[in-house]
Structure prediction request, 319 residues.
Amino acid sequence: MTLRLESDAWPGHLPGQHVDVRLTAEDGYQAQRSYSIASAPAAGRLDLIIEEIADGEVSPYLSEELRPGDRLELRGPIGGYFTWTEANGGPLLLVGGGSGVAPLMSMLRYRETIGSAIPATLLYSSRSWDEIIFREELERLSTDPAVRVIHTLTRSHLDEWNGYTRRIDAAMLEDVAGSPEQGRLAYVCGPTPLVENVASALVSIGYPPARVKTERFGPTGG
Amino acid sequence: MGEIEDEETTRLDGNAAAGVLTQVFCGEPSGAMIVCAGCGATSPIGALMAYGLELGAILRCPHCDTAVLRLGAAGATLWLDLRGAVSLRVRIADSAS
Prediction:
């Protein structure tokens, strides 16, 4: 689910940045989690993707208990490494798994907002068609001829699905990513095993390590 | 679950530690470049491997696994151990870009 937060004190963010959300119980116990910001940069507003982890401390509260008008403690925006603005150039290769698409979505939305002509490719791994986050918006974004969105469905798919049905590997990246000589800048975000496999596969097909930026999402206990 | 899987699922990166590090650094920490005392490799803090975030953070070199930066949180006190680092390079002008 998407959680939309508003704050007069929020200065806006850079695409790719995250925010720390802190909850304090009545007895003073505190729990904190990091969430990537999925919205385009905007003062006063930010959207987070909350993936509910059943036995988590924070995500069940955010998914089920939180009501419009409730207040949360935020720290951020945070991050200067896994960020992209037009000044960083491209073309962009964005590789995401599950809710790891959030910071990549912020980059794509920002790119559209500023009318950037930098080409962008998103390779996005989901377990099934129904679990693709932002599916309709991604379809709309990919009507821009400079934007390509390619899905792989790793767990289940309908018979008529003719896209990828496996985890992202070097062969898929070679098909999708194009040659590193094109100067692509890669951003990889998702669960730790996906990020590490994709990053080393990109290096194995010739991407300079400095052109591959990574952000790992843990099963943080949510 | 095997040991390797355990490590794979608990390992994050320096991006995840950036929030707690903002309590020590006056600029944005994840883009700061740190030189590993173990192997001499230079990495942005965001690209280090991160462990133990619930207690502070241990940030390890992605090349040789040296603990480059350790942060302990104890109540209102933060304790920063940098003995695994040779140097830290921070941009002070326009840290947002």
